[in-house]
């Protein structure tokens, strides 16, 4: 299975491409913003494609040609303004969903925010609310499609080394989770068709990742 990783040069994305390339059944196509980012992925033997998420649907769809699944891990980051939150976390996500449909790619995994329900938008701080709102509407857009989607809501992300153990369910208590473990959760979700049509929260826990995902 060939997988287009959108946001491959991000911290989750780099872990994810590494895990995919280590798999016997998966191959990564890393979507990056500029050619200078390519060397990391080329050393892993991964294919790369240079596309900016602010480009049009047709350009993203062309990048998705020949793949079997798309994973959206992109994010505007904590140091950008509300404009980039709208353009990347909302519009970029929606364009990628539409590109998947245009390219005939059915499997789509979205990395979202921990809680994107309407109540979470209302409860968020003024600086964080635009991000939660963007993720909320991107998630809702995906759920209204006929794509084979999975939406993953990770807890507070850390750069700690992965533990390989998580707690995953439709709702879990807030907590942290290493980005490396989130990447492994994505791979496990991709390999497990029981996650199709589902969304779940994930934090560090006591259950091996494959077992936790199998029980979703």
Automatic annotation (TrEMBL):
Pfam families, per database record: NAD_binding_10
Gene3D superfamilies, A to Z: NAD(P)-binding Rossmann-like Domain (3.40.50.720)
Domain annotation NAD(P)-binding: ranges: 7-192
InterPro entries tied to this protein: NAD(P)-bd_dom, NAD(P)-bd_dom_sf
PANTHER family in alphabetical order: FLAVIN REDUCTASE-RELATED (PTHR15020), UPF0659 PROTEIN YMR090W (PTHR15020:SF50)
Protein name from the UniProt record: NAD(P)H-binding
